[in-house]
């Protein structure tokens, strides 16, 4: 008995090609989705790392506000006579120009040249001098820095020094930066009772809330807003 051999017909070939194309498209879609997820997660992680770096730095400095050595009274012997005003108002927020000014003890002693140095024997005298000042025998030197943070052109910048110091970029792609203060009712109260962006009396400030919003320049992820609150520990006594 004679049998004729048959191969794939045109219809079978077309069906096989369509099924193969569907499988290839499905695999490609999975690959593209996985790649987009990876890129988005990297972008979000980068934004979080930028915010963590900036806010942790600022929080350290906020906590050291008002620490001018081991004595409460400091004589102003600075060359410009500008230490006393900064001592009375060691933190301020210019809401119109989005500038935060901090006068803080040098965190870790590695902040470069200080704006002032308070030299004290921790018993009878404490004197503030401009720049670096070496302590004499029996004295201790406390480096003090005046820091200005500002928000401009989608950048958070920082400058160090008296007057209007030159500012350097800390982080880019910033869409918003805001500061508010936890304010006590009286100078004897330890806890803040309300928040204000412009407290009338700096002596009533007990804590600082920093809000930073970052944006992704490639629009891969949504804007992310980060909030931190720090207490002024030198006021909580």
Features:
4-stranded antiparallel sheet; alpha+beta; 237 residues
Structural class: alpha+beta
Write down the secondary-structure element order: HEHEEEEEEEEEEE
N→C terminal distance: 109 Å
The helix content, as a percent range, equals: 25-40%
Average pLDDT, rounded to a whole number, is 86
**Alpha carbon gyration radius:** 30 Å
Taking pLDDT < 50 over at least 5 consecutive residues as the criterion, the unreliable ranges are none
Largest sheet: 8 strands, mixed
What percentage of amino acids are in beta strands? 25-35%
Report the strand count.
12
* Overall outline: elongated
Helix count equals: 2
Protein architecture, described:
The chain is α+β, with helices and mostly antiparallel strands. It contains 2 helices and 12 strands; from the N terminus they run αβαβββββββββββ. The strands form 2 sheets. Strands 1, 2, 3, 4, 5, 6, 7 and 8 form an 8-stranded mixed sheet that branches. A hairpin with a 2-residue loop joins strand 6 and strand 7. The longest helix is centred in the first third of the chain and has 54 residues, at 10-63. The model has no long low-confidence stretch (mean pLDDT 86).
């Amino acid at each position: 008995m004679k049998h004729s051999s048959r191969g794939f017909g045109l219809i079978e070939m077309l069906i096989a090609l369509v099924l193969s194309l569907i499988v290839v498209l499905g695999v490609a879609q999975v690959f593209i989705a996985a790649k987009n997820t990876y890129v988005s997660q990297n972008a979000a992680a980068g934004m979080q790392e930028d915010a963590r770096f900036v806010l942790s730095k600022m929080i350290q400095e906020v906590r050291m506000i008002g620490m001018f050595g081991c004595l409460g009274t400091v004589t102003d012997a600075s060359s410009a006579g500008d230490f006393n005003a900064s001592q009375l108002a060691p933190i301020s927020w210019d809401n119109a120009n989005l500038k935060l000014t901090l006068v803080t003890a040098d965190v870790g002693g590695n902040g470069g040249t200080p704006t002032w140095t308070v030299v004290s024997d921790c018993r009878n005298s404490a004197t503030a001098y401009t720049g670096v000042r070496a302590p004499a025998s029996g004295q201790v030197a406390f480096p003090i820095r005046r820091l200005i943070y500002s928000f401009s052109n989608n950048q958070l910048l920082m400058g160090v020094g008296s007057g209007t110091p030159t500012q350097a970029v800390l982080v880019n792609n910033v869409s918003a930066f805001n500061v508010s203060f936890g304010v006590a009712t009286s100078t004897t109260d330890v806890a803040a009772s309300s928040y204000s962006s412009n407290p009338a009396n700096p002596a009533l400030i007990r804590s600082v809330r920093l809000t930073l919003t970052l944006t992704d320049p490639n629009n891969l992820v949504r804007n992310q807003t980060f909030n931190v609150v720090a207490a002024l520990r030198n006021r909580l006594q």
